[in-house]
Amino acid sequence: MSGTEGKAKRHILLFLRIAVVAAGIIWAASRIGQEQRWGSFVEYFRRMNIFIFAVTVAVFTLCHAMVGFRWWLLLRSQSIFIKFWAAVKLFFLGWFYNNFMPSSVGGDLVRAWYVTKHTDKRLEAVLSVFVDRVVGLLSTLSIGVFFYFIFLRHQGSGVIEFGGQGGFFETLQEYKWVFLWVVVAIAAVFCGLLLFKRGRAILAKAWGYIRIHGLKIIREFTSSILLYCTKPFVILMAFGLTVFVQILAIICFWYLGAGMGITVDIRYYFTFFTLAWVLGAVPVSIGGVVVVEGSLVILFTKFAGVDESAAWAIALSQRAVWMLTSLPGAVIHLIGAHLPNKGGDDKMTPETEDFFIDYEKSIN
Questions:
Q1: Which of 4, 61, 112, 155 could form a disulfide with 126 if both were Cys (CB 3.0 to 4.6 A apart)?
Q2: Do residues 52 and 256 touch, judged by C-beta distance below 8 A?
């Protein structure tokens, strides 16, 4: 693929992601702006305890530093000994790009690019970002699945069931025409492309691109698995740390919602927030905007019986916390703190590297 074609593809993907965000914002504004809903929505924010909100922001910031520590552990497992604060700063930079920068370059790619400036082991450094994301997603999904099957699955109505009254299929039935028109639109575009020679060429090129890059991703995934299978202790530590951090963050959001007068069992928070976070990781919007919020609103209203105004208050409070905790990344970017120091003092000394190498051999 030429540079011009690659740039055009990135622009198209960026346009589609911005379109998803714009459509979601219009939908949210239309829902919240209804006269019977706007008053109660504002009232929930008036009840917000500012102290609890500030504590939530502080705890969430601390959680990000701990996730940066998780990535630092993964880097060390591959004998990449950059300093702890260098890894944390790069993580905050990636978080800022995820939430603020309207580009096709996600925070993980930013982290992967700049961490290679801190080490000569570029492949291992890039793979550490990929493994870090996989560990985060798996731990998030594990929390949601655990709380659903242990606490919510066998309860009465109002929870996520895959059949019966109020169940998953009833929700599909309610929105069946939306899904139908989406399928029809996709089929129409596909058939339209098949009718023309230029369209068939585009499909063939797209398939070739997917096939080549899919195989590349599979190879990289296999390599990363082989690299980290020799470090089970580090993986388990990273997984456990992620579970602790996410549970702590969700507890803070539950307290924040309770302070606004939203009385929902915390088990719903653990299930719905983690599911929304996993859905938000799918790169169809910018920073998961409207995907995370829309998922939370649908889950809380459909399956927890929460008023829609309250659900929007919960979702937008989380987005506000995310945006505020992204600001350190902006400062890091502006002052250039994400770049390696010219003197190389952001790297560990050879003596410290030897100590960690010997220590990791002893625990693995």
A1: 112
A2: yes
With a threshold of 0.90, does the pTM exceed it?
no
At residue 128, the pLDDT reads: 83
Is 154 in a helix, a strand, or coil? Answer: coil
317 inside domain: yes
CA pair distance 364, 362, nearest whole angstrom? 6
**DSSP H stretches of helix in 196-265:** 197-229, 232-259
Q: How far is CA 292 from the centre of its chain?
A: 9
- Total number of domains constituting the chain: 1
CA distances from 142 to 23, 239, 248, 341 (A): 31, 10, 15, 39
d(CA 246, CA 223): 28
> Of 20-29, 140-149, 177-186, 256-265, which range is least confident?
177-186
Q: For residue 210, tell me if it sits in a domain.
A: no
Residues facing 347 on adjacent strands: 82
